[in-house]
């Protein structure tokens, strides 16, 4: 039964505060998600553009409550630490995803969790274990993901990071020791903040903000959690108040609803990425890679390239014309398919200007015809399937063509979880290069393989392990 208005707020508040046992599958996936997010963070900190935004704007005297930022030698207050962690892990669009009426990346919330966990340990002396971190991740994923099931912000031109802020505010407040009053304050104030526009995610002005917007939401959420702890008041009517409430002011009267009880559904079904690209393109990459050997020798004879996809991909990443920066290119379905056909891989380095200047890239893009397959769209929205399908077929001047290569479920999909588990250690190891010595790399990869040991270590112990020794 759907809940709306004040019922949504009370359900989230109750969920985040009560202790519960999560399924083994959810905890296992949270463990994969933690390490996957960490790998993304380690890759992000190597980017000069990312570091420019991660570093605090103003120098601060070090104090006993500063937080470590994994993958770097930076320390910062909990607000700036939360921003930096989430900014780094989100930077290359390589972290997990959740796709429904609203789209998003639930691991964006990890910045709030790690920053607040460290603060609580230092300030209160309360240990927050690795297992506790995973449990908080399950809750943050669940809040953001279930809100995304039936509440489409994008339909109103608004960005999904609203739900990141909501999830992080609720969870951060609870981690900091808040009760019902404090969690309700942080939660309702996160809705009072309203919603940013999606303009920075779409042509013709796709820009860097799409890589730090979630971090901005996380930082704000942590601030709201701290002021809630000071006694800041709540606004329990924030969703349903006529004219002035969130639903009327931002959603034209559409009510915010929870479509299912909050449990561990989202973490059990979360989507991982095998490639640093927007998730709706993941299966298109696999399809293009399967055709590459046949297509590459006949590039000059290509008549057209058909891409059959789902409606969300059409809305988000179907782009024609100039692409202005890497943030623009990793959200262009046609550019991503061109990379797979030309280079046999898709890496974040291939979004840079020198690769984009290769005339073959735009030559292939101009040959592409992208169209919706309504069966793919239906399978996308089917909760029993959650398919993210694409098909690619290449036609040549002589009338011949490749097969129509279809991939319904990309490598990071729950139906292919075992395959993803095989490649995650490679993703982690690659991310460690350049930051950690061989000895430290071995130590961290050994920790990854020893889940029980991870469960018992504190957030401070874990974060200290992730400070690079080569910087």
Automatic annotation (TrEMBL):
Residue intervals of the MmgE/PrpD C-terminal domain: 275-444
MmgE/PrpD N-terminal domain sequence ranges: 11-256
GO MF term (any one): aconitate hydratase activity
InterPro entries, sorted: 2Me_IsoCit_deHydtase_PrpD (IPR012705), MmgE/PrpD_sf (IPR036148), MmgE/PrpD_sf_1 (IPR042183), MmgE/PrpD_sf_2 (IPR042188), MmgE_PrpD (IPR005656), MmgE_PrpD_C (IPR045337), MmgE_PrpD_N (IPR045336)
Organism superkingdom: Bacteria
Listed pathway(s): Organic acid metabolism; propanoate degradation
Keywords associated with the record: Lyase
Keyword check for Lyase: yes
Enzyme Commission number, as recorded: 4.2.1.79
Pfam families linked: MmgE_PrpD_C (PF19305), MmgE_PrpD_N (PF03972)
Annotated catalysed reactions: (2S,3S)-2-methylcitrate = 2-methyl-cis-aconitate + H2O
Enzyme class: lyase
Family note: Belongs to the PrpD family.
PANTHER family noted in UniProt: 2-METHYLCITRATE DEHYDRATASE-RELATED
Protein name per the record: 2-methylcitrate dehydratase
Originating organism: Candidatus Methylacidiphilum infernorum
């Amino acid at each position: 039964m759907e809940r709306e208005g004040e019922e949504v707020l009370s359900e989230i508040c109750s969920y985040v505060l009560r202790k519960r046992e999560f399924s083994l599958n959810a905890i296992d996936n949270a463990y994969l998600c933690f390490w996957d997010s960490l790998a993304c963070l380690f890759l992000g900190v190597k980017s000069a553009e990312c570091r420019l935004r991660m570093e605090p704007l103003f120098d601060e005297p070090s104090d006993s409550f500063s937080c470590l930022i994994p993958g770097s030698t930076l320390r910062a207050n909990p607000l700036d630490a939360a921003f930096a962690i989430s900014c780094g892990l989100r930077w290359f669009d390589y972290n997990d995803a959740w796709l429904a009426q609203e789209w998003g990346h639930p691991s964006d919330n990890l910045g709030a969790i790690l920053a607040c966990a460290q603060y609580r340990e230092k300030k209160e002396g309360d240990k927050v274990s690795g297992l506790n971190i995973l449990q908080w991740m399950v809750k943050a994923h669940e809040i953001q993901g279930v809100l995304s099931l039936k509440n489409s912000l994008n339909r109103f031109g608004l960005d999904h990071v609203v739900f990141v802020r909501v999830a992080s505010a609720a969870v951060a407040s609870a981690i900091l020791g808040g009760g019902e009053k404090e969690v309700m304050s942080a939660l309702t104030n996160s809705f009072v903040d309203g919603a940013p526009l999606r303009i920075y995610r779409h042509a013709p002005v796709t820009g860097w903000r799409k890589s730090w917007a979630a971090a901005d939401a996380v930082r704000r959420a942590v601030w709201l959690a701290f002021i809630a702890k000071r006694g800041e008041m709540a606004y329990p009517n924030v969703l349903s108040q006529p004219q002035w409430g969130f639903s009327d002011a931002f959603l034209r009267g559409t009510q915010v609803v929870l479509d299912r009880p909050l449990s561990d559904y989202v973490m059990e079904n979360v989507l991982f990425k095998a490639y640093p690209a927007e998730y709706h393109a993941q299966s298109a990459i696999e399809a293009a890679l399967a055709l590459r050997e046949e297509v590459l020798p006949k590039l000059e004879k290509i008549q057209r390239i058909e891409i059959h996809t789902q409606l969300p991909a059409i809305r988000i990443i179907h782009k024609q014309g100039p692409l202005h920066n890497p943030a623009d290119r990793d959200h262009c379905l046609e550019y991503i398919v061109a990379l797979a056909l030309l280079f046999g891989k898709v890496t974040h380095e291939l979004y840079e200007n020198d690769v984009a200047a290769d005339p073959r890239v735009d030559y292939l893009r101009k040959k592409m015809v992208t169209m919706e397959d309504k069966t793919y769209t239906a399978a996308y929205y089917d909760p029993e399937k959650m398919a993210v399908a694409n098909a690619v077929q290449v036609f040549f001047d002589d009338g011949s063509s490749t097969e129509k290569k279809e991939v319904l479920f990309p490598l990071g999909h729950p139906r292919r979880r075992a395959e993803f588990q095989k490649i995650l250690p490679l993703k982690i190891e690659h991310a460690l290069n350049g930051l950690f010595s061989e000895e430290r790399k071995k130590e961290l990869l050994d920790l990854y393989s020893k889940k029980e040991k991870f469960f018992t270590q504190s957030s401070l112990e874990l974060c200290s392990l992730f400070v690079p020794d080569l910087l």
